[in-house]
Amino acid sequence: MTGLETDIAHFLAGTMVLVSFLLLYQDRMFALLNAFAFHACVLALSVGWQAYLQRAPHLFITALIALLFKGVVIPVALHRIVVRLGIHRTIEAVVSIGPTMLVGMGLVGLSIVVMLPVTQAAGAFVREDLAFALSVVLLGFLMMVTRRNAVSQVIGFMSLENGLVLAATGARGMPLVVEISVGFSVLIAFFVVGIFLFRIRERFDTVDLQALEMSRGESA
Amino acid sequence: MIRNWLTQLAHAALVLGLAPLLTGVTRKIKARFLRRRGPSVVQPYRDLLKLIRKETVVAESASWLFRFIPYLIFATTWVAAALVPTFATGLAFGAAADLIVIVALLGTARFLLALAGLDVGTSFGGIGSSREMMFATLAEPAMLMVMFTLSLFAGSTELSSISAYMVGAGAVLSISLALALVALIIVSIGENARIPVDNPATHLELTMVHEAMILEYSGRHLAVIEAAAFLKLLLYLSLIACVFTPWGTASVGAGAVAYAVGFAAYLVKLGMLAFLLVLFETAIAKMRVFRVPELLGVALMLGLLGTILLFVSRVSR
Amino acid sequence: MSPLLLNQLAASGVAWLLIWAVVALVVVRGPRTSQLIYGACALICAVLAGLGACALFTPGAGANALELPVGLPLGRTLLGLDPLSAAFATIINIAGTIVSGYAVGYGTHAREPRRVVPLYPAFIAGMNLVLLAQDAFSFLIGWEFMSLASWALVVSDHHSADSRRAGLIYLVMATAGALNLLFAFGLLAGHSEGYAFSDMRRAAGSTMGAVVLLLTLVGAGSKAGLVPLHAWLPLAHPAAPSHVSALMSGIMTKVAVYGFIRIVFDLAGPPAWWWSIPVLVVAALTAFLGVLYALMEHDLKRLLAYHTVENIGIIFIGLGLALAFRASGLAAAGALALIAAIFHVFNHSLFKSLLFLGSGAVLNSTGERDMEHLGGLIHRMPVTAVAFLGGCIAISALPPFNGFVSEWLTFQAILLSPQLPQWIPRLLVPAVGATLACSAALAATCFVKAFGMTFLGRPRTSTAAEARETDRWSVGAMLIFAALCLLAGVFPGVVMDALAPVSRMLLGTELAPQLTQPWLRIVPIAPERSAYNGVLVFGMIAIAAAVTALVVRRFASHAMRRSPAWDCGFPDASPATQYTAGSFAQPIRRVFGSAVFRARERVEMPKPGDTSTAKAYIEVHDTLWEVLYAPVIRVVDATTERLNRLQFLTIRNYLTLVFTALVLLLIVVGIAR
Question: Which of C423, C594, C600 is opposite residue A113, by nearest beta carbon?
Fold first, then answer.
């Protein structure tokens, strides 16, 4: 592996961390869905590049699945759901943007501090990708914790999923059967959540997990 | 030695001469995007000449500081702009061209400008000064983080060394550099009072930060301050050009041909950057004032993330 | 000059200060006698500063400490100037001289000179005694003496309830701090034969080192003003008279820094790698919170006091970095960080004293400390304004003044952090760097506000409109400080070379000599890595400004006229429409204050038809006080209430208590045997 190739892999993994931060920053529903689609595309690129580097053709299929399902199908479907439910308001976060970003930085630092010394045996290149993948997972968790809207929590869960896929491909590559089962479980989760959202919406006429507040943009 | 000095002086005069032209070109491109014809590209020179020849009107409550400050602002901005390599690196004062010094010189200019805004004792100046300093509290750390990333790459905080390293290292595709570039772009937009942070074309209280501070200036004082603003835009675009697109820059003592090539490359880079700036400005709307700290905070986070990721990948030395 | 002679002269200097304190007690009656005492103090401080400078350049300065026949039976009393003491003595006494010069003019306005003048030389004597001490007891005696003298000065205005409260809080926290230092010295002396510093150095082991570090951080840190132990500082520093505030803020805090450096770098032995982490975290928090607190203030002296907290944070960031580098064996980087920290100590003593003296001049002329009642003073007090402006630019770390140089050096030290082997400090340091940069920008905001509200704009009250320039002693002292700030910024190599013996003594290595660099630039590590040329930057700015002014003058129209300010068609002569301190800080309050201070703004509008004015309220909570201090005060109050019952017991109860204590002690002795 030449320096340029490792640099590109590194670059794509780092971009995933960056897009996770971008997901945290969004507070409008459609922009959030677009950002998630971007997240999945970067994941697909990253997995595809790993497939090329490791000469593992089955990873190409993983990349294709990620691109199709998480990059196209799920965002479009969620888009439809959002329009149907009429919840394209701003997302109210529990904690304001500044502290959320600071905690996110801390999580990235934490994953670096944890991952790098622990995986001394593996090569430097693999360890760095693992550190990035753990960061993406933690940031997905953070997103689930700091959002009140059910759809944005689903997105957080999906981005966590993406981080796990990144970790799996970076480490040694995943056999296709594992990917298929993971993909199907994601689909099932998605269906369940979708049905759930409709039920909640019918019951309570809102999917906002807090009572409706009339605040408008001023975060004080 | 003497030639080195002369090159440096020529460079200082060059940035001063080019700055209004850059602003003229930017305004022309913007007008074209908005389907207007726009003023001529040399209009800023004419504006400066017109202002110099006008009578200066000074408010009754203004002090001697009000009349001194324009020259100090211009001097610090010019010195900072003269230190950024444009067509050649390693000039005579290159040893003093420390990135931190350049940013701090711009900080001095900003400090004095904020004082000028408060001097007359009206609320317009107060608006501009307070908002400008608030933007600075986030833009300066973001700039510093960008500098850390760059100096960790190049092992030095001197711009000439950083530029030389970027040329020498070839296509170093690193996420930290990309993050640093994005952060630097956001900071440049904030510092130069471009959309989405501030609108350089209007004089309404709601949209002005920079314009509010210089509201009371007129005549030759205003000419000097406007020239300083032109220089600041040139400085930031030159900074982005010399660090992130260093190809074509001559090294010192390379001879007249290399200098000419470097100069041509510099003009091309400036033109492209101006085009991209205008494209971005036209595509986006101005942000509400209290969303700008979020944007600058994002720049700070990106810079910090870039530095931390650089520690991870051990490219630093 | 031989080291022993230097030590003797320095000790006699301290003795002379004490003698003058006693003389002042007897003699002081009015302005003339006050001037005499202050003048004498200025002379003695100048001599001590000179001695300190001599000691810095005398090799082997710390060798022969002067042994006094007086003292406690447990140990010897040793006084001497080793390089660390000498550096701090020079710094402190330079500032002391100039402040005493200021006091010659300012002190004549004191209401009750008998309460202030005798304590002033005593205060300076206490500080110098701490620096001269070469054994633990003299150190602590000097420390307590310094605290008591400054406490008495804080409560000198005993009519004001604020001063009394400030004095109480100060006394409690100073005592608590000194107790921590006592324990720290006790731990250090436990392993060694005696209480002299030389004995402690020989026996330095790192088992107790962590506890000593934490005790010193609390003890010296509370005196220096580290968050969260800073609460006394913004109450006590403004309550004292202005020249004393300058001493307390600009100098006494530095003595606390000296105490920290002495114990942690000199006596506690080789540091462990994690020692720097608490120091860095506390220092970064201090820097950030200090300046935010300062931004919320509109009392000029309280703003300056809170800002001292920020600068102490910056100094301790440098010290933390030096600890980290030293623990990893990177001696050169450690020397850089240490020099940066001590350079900032010097700079801060200069510009903070200058700013406090300026606020004293303003207070003298207008009777006001509140910026909301000032304004337009640049027209009435032009020379004070120039000196104050110099101080503001210096403290905002802007070139070509000195504040920038120490910040630049600190940033260079931060840039060396990738060499650290451990991950946590390596990741922590960039975050600390970002906090430092943010604090520097916030400091610039703070001083635009301070200078702009006080000196610029239009006068907000009639007292501000009728102010007059202060006397020439005060003005002269302030101008000397401002000139020193500029000189230290343009010739930083001089200061860096002067501090080299300190880093040689503490870390065993020093930076390359700076005065031999071409063009008088400073090169902390290597020329290709980074260099700063103060002379060049200053020269270029001056030349550029002159050239521009000349060209513009030559080609521009000379016509100028005065007219009313732009009012958008609504002429309003009232100066109340201009920005106030609260309104200037509003964006910062919105962005940072809503999280840190729970700052809220609220407007009460009158009902339609009601002709009364609308009122705007700004609510700012001191979160640290409410979370840390208020519960502690409540607990202490409740406990003392309970314990008060011990006052009212019968004789039989007391006998029972004594008997129980005796029996317990005998049991302990029995078990221990």
Answer: C423
